[in-house]
Every structure is written in structure tokens, then in C-alpha cells.
Design brief:
It is found in: Cell envelope. Pfam families: Peripla_BP_4 (PF13407). Keywords: Signal. The chain is α/β, with parallel strands linked by helices and 346 residues long. The chain is built from ten helices and 14 strands. It folds into two domains: 187 residues, Rossmann fold; 135 residues, Response regulator (Rossmann fold, 3-Layer(aba) Sandwich). It is 35% helix and 18% strand. A six-stranded parallel β-sheet has the order 4-3-5-6-7-13, sandwiched between helices. A six-stranded mixed β-sheet has the order 9-8-10-11-12-14, sandwiched between helices. Helix 3 links the parallel strand 5 and strand 6. Helix 2 packs parallel to helix 3 and helix 6 crosses helix 7.
């Protein structure tokens, strides 16, 4: 996906190529009670159309990124006068989330947007919705069967690792016997395995670089601090760190500062505002973060609206929306951070 397509190009009624990075819709800098970028038009063609009721079901917002997902969905739906959003409370309990989706099905919403706590476990209720004639936009965590959704939209976990590895590789390509360490997320998640695989594959292009250690954390500040402290104690010298998640990166930076270490560069993941602020300030080891944009939730609302109104994606020849859309994992550095700051989440 070309980086030139990242601002102002929105699904549903806008001119956009499939897989574009959609960042115009939101920010976590409040203005009049709403995300800052919400003062921008929803889309070039935002004239009200047929009334559409969209049901939204996601996991509990116990993480900065998941909270940003919910806020993006709410803010985006609020841009359309003809869209009614039925949003569930959110739960990490699969049985509870299944019940919430079934309630939305019974309400006969026009379209469902579902970010499953567990894609495999929620597959049956996705199938149930589709069989009931309610098209499903599967957000991020994919269902086990493509029959359970009309369109999937999500981030590129493999691409995150690949782009993080290539960024580090280019920085260290001239250093003999360079060493890198990896602070991963939850190892029982498929997305963590994909991020690690992409990182490993990128490093294959740089034979002078060796990954010398890897620790798995839990996507929390506390786990990031504890696991990073262990890495620092075990590795007295290394040249670069890739941290999978900016939330746990807050803790990792805390451990790094407490250890008085500044002899390596750090790359984060997801695109938190705190990480972007640190990159812009350029006063720590954190030099870049690889995006996993929560703006995908806003794009999912655009897609759901388009489905409910029988529209395709503006700028494309097809009459229908795509079946699958993978967002691009752009690398945010000091050189381009101002452009991406409005998309940062708290």
C-alpha cells in the first residue's frame, strides 16, 4: 500500500485503494469532547443516504489500542446522520460476547461489525448472522471461516515485524556482529507469532545481525517493565530492541531509564501517542514505531454503511466492497511523526 494514500481517503464513499491506511478519521487529542480529527469531513461524499443500523461488538477495552478501536467506531458513526450505532459493552469472555452478538442479531440490525475476543470461538455466531441475512464486517481478529463474514479488515502483523526488522536492519547494516533483542507480546496469540516471524524474516537479509534474546510480555506497562528489566540484566550489550506493543513499551522505557542504558535504539509497535511524542522529542532510545492503526474501526463503519446502502468503494470500478482489506504497517520516525501524530491513541 503506498504511503501517499494515508490521509483523507476513506472507505464507503471515498476515493481509496483497497488496503490503504485510513488515518483521517480520529485522534485522541480532544476538541469539544470529540477526537480532534473528527472536525474533518467524514468523507468527500458524506451526503446522507439510506438509514442504516450498525451493530458493533468488540472485546473489553482493557488496553489503549482496544479503547481507541471503540472510540474510532463511535466517532465515525457519529459523522453520518443516517447511521445508528448499536454498540455492546465489550467483553473478553467469549460466551458473553457471543450473547451480545446474538442480541444484535435479534434486534435485526442491518450490518454487524465484530472484533472478536477470539476469532475461532466467535466463528459460529458470525455464521449465524450471515445466515440470518445480516452481513458481517470482521474486524482484525479473523474468524475461522470466510463464510462467517462478508468483509475482513485488519492490520498486518507479519508486516509489522517485517518493517520493524527492515528499519533496524538498515540502521545496523554496516555494524559488524550487531545484536538485537525482541520484547514480544502474548505468545499464545497468533498475531504475536506473525510479528515475530516477520521480524525474523527481515533479519535474514542482514547476515551481520543476530537476534540474541527474546522475551514475551503481556501488552501491559507492568509486564513490559518486568520483562525488559530481565532482558537488560541478561544482555549487557546489544544494538537494537524491537518491542511489539507501545503500551508495554511505556514500562520497557521505564526499565531502560532505571538501568541507565542508552547504548541501543528501540522500535515500538502499534502507534500510541506517547510513543510518537517520545519519537518527536528524540530524548530516549525510542526512535520509531510501526503502526497497527486503530482507525481500522472507523473504516469498518464506512464499509458497514456502504454495505447497508448497497454501495461499493469510491474510486474502484467494482460495485461491491472488497472481501478483504489489509492495512499497511507504516514506520513512524522523527522525519514523519508530525503527519501521523493525529492518529496516535492514548
Amino acid at each position: 500500500m503506498p504511503e501517499t494514500s494515508r490521509r483523507g481517503l476513506l472507505f464507503g464513499t471515498a476515493a481509496v485503494s483497497a488496503g490503504a491506511l485510513l488515518t483521517a478519521c480520529t485522534s485522541n487529542e480532544p476538541k469539544t469532547g470529540e477526537p480532534a480529527a473528527n472536525n474533518e469531513p467524514a468523507a468527500p461524499d458524506d451526503k446522507p443516504g439510506k438509514k442504516v443500523t450498525i451493530g458493533f461488538a468488540g472485546p473489553q477495552a482493557d488496553h489503549g489500542w482496544l479503547n481507541a478501536i471503540n472510540e474510532n467506531a463511535k466517532a465515525r458513526a457519529g459523522k453520518y446522520s443516517e447511521v445508528t450505532l448499536e454498540i455492546t459493552e465489550g467483553s473478553n469472555d467469549t460466551a458473553a460476547q457471543i450473547g451480545q452478538v446474538q442480541t444484535l442479531i435479534n434486534k435485526k440490525v442491518d450490518v454487524l461489525v465484530i472484533l472478536p475476543a477470539d476469532g475461532k470461538a466467535l466463528t459460529q455466531v458470525g455464521l449465524q448472522a450471515m445466515k440470518a441475512g445480516i452481513p458481517v464486517i470482521n474486524l482484525d481478529r479473523v474468524f475461522a471461516s470466510p463464510q462467517a463474514y462478508r468483509c475482513w479488515i485488519g492490520g498486518d502483523n507479519y508486516g509489522m515485524g517485517l518493517n520493524a526488522g527492515n528499519f533496524i536492519g538498515e540502521r545496523l547494516k554496516d555494524k559488524k556482529n550487531a545484536k538485537v533483542v525482541e520484547l514480544a507480546g502474548l505468545d499464545n496469540l497468533e498475531l504475536t507469532k506473525q510479528r515475530s516471524q516477520g521480524f525474523a524474516d527481515a533479519l535474514k537479509n542482514y547476515p551481520n545481525i543476530k537476534r540474541v534474546a527474546r522475551q514475551a510480555a503481556d501488552f501491559t506497562v507492568e509486564s513490559g517493565q518486568a520483562k525488559m528489566a530481565q532482558l537488560l540484566q541478561a544482555q549487557k550489550q546489544f544494538d537494537a530492541l524491537w518491542n511489539h506493543d507501545d503500551d508495554q513499551g511505556v514500562g520497557a522505557l521505564r526499565a531502560i531509564q532505571q538501568a541507565g542504558r542508552d547504548d541501543f535504539l528501540m522500535v515500538g509497535g502499534a502507534g500510541a501517542k506517547a510513543a510518537m511524542d517520545a519519537i518527536k522529542a528524540d530524548n530516549s532510545v525510542l526512535k520509531a514505531t510501526v503502526l497497527y492503526p486503530p482507525t481500522m474501526a472507523a473504516s469498518a463503519i464506512d464499509l458497514a454503511r456502504a454495505l447497508g446502502q448497497g454501495k461499493g468503494v469510491g474510486g474502484m470500478s467494482e460495485l461491491e466492497i472488497p472481501a478483504s482489506i489489509t492495512l499497511y504497517s507504516a514506520v513512524v520516525t522523527k522525519d514523519n511523526v508530525d503527519e501521523y501524530l493525529p492518529t496516535g491513541f492514548s
